[in-house]
Amino acid sequence: MRRSLIALPLVLASALVLAGCTGGDEPTPDATETDGASIGVCEAPGGDAVSAVDVAGDFGAAPTVTFDAGLEVTTTERAVLIEGDEAEPGQLVSAAYALYNGTTGDELETYGWAEGDPATPFRADYASLFEGFAKTLGCLGPGSRAVGVIPNAEGFGEQAETVGIGVDDVLVFVVDVLSDNVWSTDLPVVGGTAEAPTVTLPATAPKTDLEIAVLEAGDGDVVGVADSVTVNYLGTAWETGEVFDSSFANGTPATFEVNGVVTGFREALVGQTVGSKVLVTMPPALGYGSTEGHALQFSTLVFYIEILALNPDA
């Protein structure tokens, strides 16, 4: 199953755009260490380089992107091509994108527009994304299209060779923000008891993108991507309706690192508060789709999650 380069879990060495995800012995410079990170995530300027990139086509469909190779920038330049809704810094959105080497003109990846390609979840803040990608996406909500021209120092940094670019190359990042990931229709029904909840799925086709519903907001601390959490959860495969895992049934809440779980589960946790009860559905690519031979490799997953505690000393 093809999977977005940018959506790989934090725990994988090949995770790319997500900030700080080296997976190796050499540290990648934190995006906040670069000079450009003093610019607010929503305040990337325009410039000659980004003005030289032509993006044609309708929103929500793969665009035609043309530019002359040899683009040069020292900090990220952004142009908002289609004004959509506004998002808060760090708000979860899902987007389709095209990524190019602006130095050579080569296409690196196009993802999210084709049938079978789910949109990629992003949080536009320096803690979650490398700087240039965060600046391109900053404060853009559904209906927005933007292009960013990004120096590799604000892009992949020392991971450049992993994606087949030079450390001094420039990136061109074209993005359509498709949704805000709010699950508002065809919600499962959570029943049962507090000790043994049940999830009854609607008689509809599985969702194709990441969607999250907060059933009950807690009043505790906010969960971050670097935190350790304790949760109770119930996991169901949408296609079969069968429960495949449950900490409730095991009798013991689960404790783990937020950045150590599959992408869809992670994104359902980050930004929530302790005490919250959350439903999340995720397509295979954001679950176990890249795990060859996994029993749930091709399954759309639904999790009911109760966030019990943060573990700051873990």
Automatic annotation (TrEMBL):
Keyword tRNA-binding found: no
Gene3D superfamilies assigned to the protein according to its UniProt record, in alphabetical order: 3.10.50.40
E.C. numbers: 5.2.1.8
Gene Ontology MF, one: peptidyl-prolyl cis-trans isomerase activity
Superkingdom of the source species: Bacteria
The PPIase FKBP-type domain, residue ranges: 226-311
Reactions accelerated catalytically: [protein]-peptidylproline (omega=180) = [protein]-peptidylproline (omega=0)
This protein's record includes keyword Signal: yes
EC supergroup of this enzyme: isomerase
Classification via InterPro entries: PPIase_dom_sf, PPIase_FKBP_dom
Keywords noted in UniProt: Isomerase, Rotamase, Signal
Leader peptide range in chain numbering: 1-19
Family: Belongs to the FKBP-type PPIase family.
Protein name per Swiss-Prot or TrEMBL: Peptidyl-prolyl cis-trans isomerase
Source species of the chain: Pseudolysinimonas yzui
